[in-house]
Amino acid sequence: MKSVKEFTSPVSNIAIFHDEERHFLEALTRWNYFPNQKDSSTELPPCFSTSRFTPEIAEELANVDLSRERKAYWFDLVEYRATRFNNVPRVLSLIHPQAYSRIYSKLKENRLEILELMKDENSAITAEQHNDGRMFIMNYEDHETKTKNTLDISFGAGFRAHADVANCFGSIYTHSLEWAIQGYEEAKERLRERGGEKHWSSALDVALRNAKRNETSGLPVGPSSSSIAVEIILAAVDRELAGKYRFVRYIDDYTAYCETHIQAQEFVRALSNALSRYRLTLNLSKTKITELPEPLIDSWVTKLNNATPWRTDSNGALTLLTHEAINFLDYAVHLNKAEPDGSVLKLAAGLICHRAQGDTAATVFQYILSLSWHYPILLPLLEKVDATSDYYDKEAVSKKFNGILETNALHRRSDGMCWALYYLKQLSSQPTQQNIELVIQTGDATAIALLSSFESGVDAAVAYANQVTENCTLYELDQSWILLYQLFFHEKINNPYADDPTFEILKKHDVQFLNPPKKGSKAEDYCFYYSNPFREENESPVGFKDYLDGKH
Fold this sequence. Notes:
This protein is α+β, with helices and mostly antiparallel strands and about 550 residues long. About 50% of the residues lie in helices and about 5% in strands. The chain is globular and about 75 Å long.
């Protein structure tokens, strides 16, 4: 029998780009549109994909004339509640494709200036070409790289100052993007010149606001467009401090290495002042100054690494016995009680899950599965355990996933519901009728969209969608757009948006955001052709001329 791992979707083909501009455009649309910036890409289950949403489709959507009603209200978005280590949710966002396409268009038009504005030697996160096509990968877990970088920057320092921006993405004042791009005085002067030519940053500000009810406060967390905006603003902050202090910034997290305690205090004050010019503040509870030397990594990380079983077999390959795995995970559970806000269990499971084989793998799988009921953040790691169903009762495991689905529906956790449904799908199992009702009651668009892919759940999902579309506002439609599009694509409902061709355009290009077929779409084939470094300059593959001419 196949394992849970073997049922999962295949890994996307490695993206090869010989054109920096093309990489930028595809990263914005195909790879960093939905929340997908962790190193392990585990924000959403892999059944969610934007690989079919290509630059050409985004360009077509961006050129659609909007209705008068839409221009009056603009767009809302789908919220996805992702659980953190302490089970406190963080709200990620799936921007409406029409709204995102308009942001994409502004970023494309001003790509070179944007990339220049993001250049920042003090930032540990940069927009770069990754092999999987992404532009941003936020690698929180890479302790080794972080340690090596720290050794260089901290040499000779007596004190370390640490501070981070309070609720960074949620506190961004979108107009401050213009200040960071143009300079505060120039932006203010342009504002005085009513009727004068507007700077391109003003149009980008508008596009970002329009994606979120035209609100000037806060950016959606997840898409690369928001990461670009934050990097531009904080790079401007960094430029005020560069040359005066030794510091590194990881997204919104600052660490400075200073000779004296007074200098460390000065850094915190200077950072606070620089942030205030962009209406940002420091998180006071996380601001601290520490005398050096101090360990380079947290003590719990050292403890876990030291406790990890590193025994090898006769061929020199790392191996793992069942009792070793149990002892190690037991130790991690004890350690987690002392470090409840750390990623103890996630790191521990990640250290051994890929090494377990046979009966040991089944035990590790069952152990992590049990912990996942308490900590949904562990659910993505189950894919990495090579545990075949020959070693466990598939029906019993399906029952446990239904239990996980139930508790996460009661707590309204998007990630817990979606991952539980994802695994049930891989096991060819069904959610219980009670769980179907609980998921519907949450109103969670991503979970209900995934529920609609089950034979037992599709009718309930359709009934909910019909209820949403009755006498609703555009905002209410947008808050469920991924569910509505999923059902529209499969002809379960009519287009809920009157006088708006967005869904028709997406369907015309065979865009599927949930469970896309393995065979590539015509739009994806064009991306592969465009990115092929070996194609001849004037080469045009058979079947693409009509696509390029717009005769889809």
